[in-house]
Amino acid sequence: MTLRHLSLAALICATPAPAETIAVRSGSVVLNLDAVALGQLNYGTDPVIPALILEEFFRGDADRTRTYDQILRDQIVPDFTAIPTTCLKCEINGASITPPAGRRLKPSTFTYDPANVPGTATGEIGLTGTTRFIGDFTGTFVLGDFDIRYNLSPATYLFPNRGWVFVNNYAFAGVPAFETASVTVTAAGGKLVVEGDLTVSYELDLYFFPGDRGKKIGNFRLETPGTPATAALPPVLTRTAAGAIQIEVTGKGNTCYQLQYSHDLLHWLSAGEKVNGRDEIIRWTDAGLPLTPLPPASVPSRFYRLIED
């Protein structure tokens, strides 16, 4: 009798637990593009003019009402000049979305089991945010309104099953723009984090940049909300033995940080480019150039602040 009870208990313990399904309907994706790599893509004939120069970025939250034509026309940054290519934040769309005229914004239909994200990933992660480039060509080159998919369908694409792929939907709808490499995936506490390198896709190689497929042009970090995080620690400011000022903060996930400085608490200037938090310690050392024009010890006073985005 005891043996039979033990056998029944063993069978009960061996019953697999039902898979957990989590839907991705909010969060953000931060793109950090490499301006030098973009400029060196195989495009154009003038060696003095870079292949691609980021001229405008239409941030997700501020981009949801712009029409297709406005993305081509609107000039946020004066003139036609290069802008910083780091911390370009795209917002993850919800389950339903109404695109502005001419746009093809995609809703998010993506679900996964945190115990096996690659093996259970289905659907698409729709994003809002567009990049507009100028370069050695006439007009502009726009990539955006991406959706992220895991393993493209063999029924639709010549090269399916490429892992995580950014599909362009602003123009050339449904054409993969970026493939990815060296990707890490973590899923815990209801939060999904996917990060890795961005590379030129097969399609961009075929139609625009021949010979550049797989070339690294930046990196990305996707993060969805999870369980409430612990309160952020305040920045720490110290002076080194050499007289430099060191500012340190524990970055929060996909929060972007811009360090600024001032001499009078009224007029503020940016020091360096925006930095992605990545749940890591961020450290700035102000010894003058290249972060600020003069060393801190050479001015009567200098104040600092961090802008979170």
Structure, described:
With 309 residues, the chain is mostly beta strands. It folds into two domains: 22-223, no CATH class; 236-308. It contains five helices and 19 strands. It has helices spanning 2-13, 35-39, 68-73, 117-120, 202-207; strands spanning 22-23, 28-33, 53-58, 88-92, 111-112, 124-128, 130-134, 141-144, 147-150, 164-168, 175-188, 191-200, 216-223, 236-239, 245-250, 256-262, 269-276, 281-286, 303-308. An eight-stranded antiparallel β-barrel has the order 2-4-6-9-10-11-12-13. A three-stranded antiparallel beta sheet has the order 3-7-8. A three-stranded antiparallel beta sheet has the order 14-15-18, with no helix packed on it. Strand 14 and strand 15 form a beta hairpin. The longest helix has 12 residues, at 2-13. The chain starts with a helix and ends with a strand. The model is unreliable at 1-12 (pLDDT under 50).
